[in-house]
């Protein structure tokens, strides 16, 4: 993992969000999500949702195999946003999933493999 979480031009204002949330694997992102507060989810949602379409449009033109640097960081931030959004929109800000088993019991087989890895496609 690199500590450089710089983002593409037009997304620089999300550097703090990337530093906190953007990680290459679902397992790493899950650890951050499980420790997040209701306010953390609300802040992430309010800040990034208005730019989501622009981020997805930029990523749509990229090959996953070639992702690196700022574009890879944006991809990881979008993954984190997709995984965190239900906690804001549906779960009342809880880091848990209400009326379900503990999310910590769900261990994806690809847990330590980067989400942009070719194996996941």
Helical content band = 40-55%
Instruction: Quickly count the helices.
Output: 5
- What class do helices, strands and sheet pairing give? mainly alpha
Order of helices and strands: HHHHH
β-sheet strand percentage: under 5%
- Average of the residue pLDDT scores: 90
**Integer-rounded radius of gyration:** 14 Å
Main beta sheet strand tally, sense and closure: none
How widely separated are the two ends? 21 Å
Question: How would you describe the overall organization of this protein?
Answer:
It is a single chain. The protein has five helices and no strands. The chain has 121 residues and is mainly α.
List keywords for this structure.
5 helices; mainly alpha; 121 residues; globular; 47% helix
SSE topology:
Blueprint: H1 15-21, H2 26-34, H3 38-48, H4 52-60, H5 69-89
Can I get a quick summary?
With 121 residues, this protein is an all-alpha fold. The chain has helices at residues 15-21, 26-34, 38-48, 52-60, 69-89. α2 (26-34) crosses α5 (69-89) and α4 (52-60) crosses α5.
